[in-house]
């Protein structure tokens, strides 16, 4: 059996300190459930002494049926003037009823003298008797040595004494923290190795790295090589300043590259789903460039790369995407070759002769030169490929549209769109009004005109709208690219593109593509 590394997730506490991230009590409970399904060993729920929300979390989390993870409560050592049994922070940690308690203490003399303003000896006493009080109460006690690496570089003997006093007090794990995130991997390795040689074997060494130097993942793995077996971090690297060590990358590297077990058997394949779930609950966009779990992690664009991957994926993929629940994506652009289109056609379920693919490739490169972009707008690409390969049969003919925007006095601005189209032998002329703007009015009018012929469009709506000016030389007459995401909320979605010097015309082109793609997919699903 592979050697085990304990994963300690602090997304709910350290991760929530990131700028732009706010988690409600229910958000934290949902994330805790998802982390338990992933199979991390510890979930740090928060600081019960800091705010009512965290107190409520610890009350509610006890009702969850967690199968893999232990809940940890976070706090500090006692105050200098208090005995442990009189300290409100330690009392609240015990009242949380969390089976694991993590407390932090100072290991850098600069903080001892300038921040706490106590003697070095008093600081050691605060650490030891706080750990002793919590462990005597039956709690698994983790001690986080704040600023440990900076403290060690300043006064190594004292930093090691901090760890020894925590262990003597009953801490079963001592965590070495690169709190300022300024260390290099070789420093982390050498210092962690010294700690491992100094402390008894029964004391677990932990590592907690911040990402201020873009090295948190590398530093965490360096600590594991030196003997650490407890890693703290957050999903997707959330955290204060530049973030914390990204557990998604750490877990994948440990299991796939270092052959160390940190999740229950088979759970690694759910890593990408967990990563996206946490982002969704936190209401932030998933970063496509995240290693292992991002949408771009196994995306191939260059024609030579795609050609090689088609023959043997190992040529440009360091692991199989499916190992972490991801998938290979073939991008189409002006850098594409025939292999890109061939693999993309297969992905979309299309069969095309080589000469048809070359014709489609020529058209794509011509359009990209005009400002179109098909990397994201895969629905527009699918339509283009259908048309170029001769498979496409139009659902309707759009004969024209008109848009007007009116504002009188203090009245709300009203946009009206009229769409004229032909389905078979029947013409349809429909007008729609919208207070949300001309694009919404156009979208509403088009679908309103088509629903009598294609009722499957009823549940479709415009989900997102992005505009980019392609060249600023002509001021307000500059060429504009519009990307529109459409779909059914909570279900399938797709992206289309339109380009024109007129933003309304570009928007209408993308809207028409979106509706045509929806009808095309419905037709294919019926077959």
What does this structure look like?
This protein has 527 residues and is an alpha/beta fold. The chain has three domains: 6-282, TIM Barrel (Alpha-Beta Barrel), CATH 3.20.20.70; 299-388, no CATH class; 397-526, 2-Layer Sandwich (Double Stranded RNA Binding Domain), CATH 3.30.160.270. It is 39% helix and 20% strand. It contains 17 helices and 16 strands. It has helices at 25-38, 52-61, 88-95, 109-116, 120-136, 148-154, 156-168, 185-198, 216-225, 247-257, 271-282, 303-311, 338-347, 354-370, 378-388, 438-450, 503-526, and strands at 6-9, 42-46, 70-76, 100-106, 140-146, 173-178, 204-209, 230-233, 299-300, 329-330, 397-406, 414-423, 426-434, 461-469, 480-487, 493-500. An eight-stranded parallel barrel has the order 1-2-3-4-5-6-7-8, surrounded by nine helices. It has a three-stranded antiparallel sheet with strand order 11-12-13. Helix 6 crosses helix 7 (156-168) and helix 8 (185-198) runs parallel beside helix 9. The radius of gyration is 29 Å and the shape is elongated. The mean pLDDT is 88.
Radius of gyration: 29 Å
Strand content: 15-25%
Based on the coordinates given, report the CATH architecture of the largest domain. Alpha-Beta Barrel
Give the distance, in angstroms, between the N- and C-terminal Cα atoms: 48 Å
* SSE-based structural type: alpha/beta
Instruction: Please mark out the parts with pLDDT under 50 across 5 or more consecutive residues, or reply none.
Output: none
Report the sheet with the most strands, covering strand number, pairing sense and barrel closure.
8 strands, parallel, barrel
The CATH topology of the largest domain is what?
TIM Barrel
Number of domains: 3
The coarse overall form would be elongated
Count of helices?
17
Q: Quick one: how many beta strands?
A: 16
């Amino acid at each position: 059996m592979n050697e085990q590394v304990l994963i300690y997730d602090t997304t709910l506490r350290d991760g929530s300190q990131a700028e732009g991230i706010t988690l409600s009590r229910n958000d934290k409970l949902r994330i805790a459930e998802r982390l338990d399904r992933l199979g991390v060993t510890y979930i740090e729920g928060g600081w019960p002494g800091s705010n009512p929300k965290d107190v409520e979390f610890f009350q509610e989390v006890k009702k969850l049926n967690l199968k893999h993870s232990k809940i940890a409560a976070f706090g500090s050592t006692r105050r200098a003037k208090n005995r442990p049994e009189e300290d409100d922070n330690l009392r609240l940690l015990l009242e949380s009823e969390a089976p694991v308690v993590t407390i932090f203490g100072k290991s850098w003399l600069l903080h001892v003298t300038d921040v706490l303003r106590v003697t070095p000896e008093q600081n050691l006493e605060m650490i030891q008797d706080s750990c002793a009080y919590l462990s005597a109460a039956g709690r698994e006690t983790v001690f986080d040595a704040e600023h440990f690496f900076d403290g060690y570089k300043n006064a190594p003997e004292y930093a090691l004494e901090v760890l020894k006093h925590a262990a003597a007090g009953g801490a079963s794990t001592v965590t070495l923290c690169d709190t300022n995130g300024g260390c290099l991997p070789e420093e982390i390795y050498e210092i962690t190795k010294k700690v491992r040689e100094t402390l008894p074997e029964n004391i677990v060494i932990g590592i907690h790295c911040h990402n201020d130097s873009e090295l948190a993942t590398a530093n965490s793995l360096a600590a594991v090589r030196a003997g650490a077996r407890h890693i703290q971090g957050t999903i997707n690297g959330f955290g204060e300043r530049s973030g914390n060590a990204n557990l998604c990358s750490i877990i994948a590297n440990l299991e796939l590259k270092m052959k160390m077990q940190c999740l229950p058997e088979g759970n690694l394949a759910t890593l990408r789903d967990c990563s996206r779930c946490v982002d969704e609950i936190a209401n932030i966009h998933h970063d496509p460039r995240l290693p292992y779990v991002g949408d771009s992690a196994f995306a191939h664009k260059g024609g030579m790369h795609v050609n090689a991957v088609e023959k043997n994926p190992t040529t440009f993929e360091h692991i199989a995407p499916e190992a972490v629940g991801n998938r290979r994506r073939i991008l189409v652009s002006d850098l594409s070759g025939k292999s890109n289109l061939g693999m993309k056609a297969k992905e979309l379920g299309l069969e095309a002769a080589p000469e048809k693919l070359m014709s489609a490739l020529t058209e794509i490169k011509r359009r990209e030169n005009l400002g179109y972009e098909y990397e994201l707008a895969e629905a527009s690409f699918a339509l283009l490929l259908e048309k170029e390969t001769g498979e496409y049969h139009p659902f309707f003919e759009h004969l024209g549209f008109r848009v007007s925007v009116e504002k009188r006095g203090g009245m709300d601005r009203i946009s009206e769109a009229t769409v004229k189209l032909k389905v078979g032998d029947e013409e349809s002329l429909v007008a729609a009004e919208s207070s949300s703007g001309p694009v919404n009015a156009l979208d509403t009018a088009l679908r309103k005109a088509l629903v009598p012929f294609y009722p499957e469009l009823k549940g479709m709506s415009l989900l997102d709208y992005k505009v980019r000016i392609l060249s600023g030389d002509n001021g307000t007459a500059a060429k504009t690219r519009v990307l529109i995401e459409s779909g059914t909320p909570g279900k399938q979605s797709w992206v289309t593109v339109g380009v024109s010097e007129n933003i309304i015309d570009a928007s209408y082109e993308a809207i028409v593509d979106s509706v045509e793609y929806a009808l095309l997919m419905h037709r294919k699903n019926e077959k």
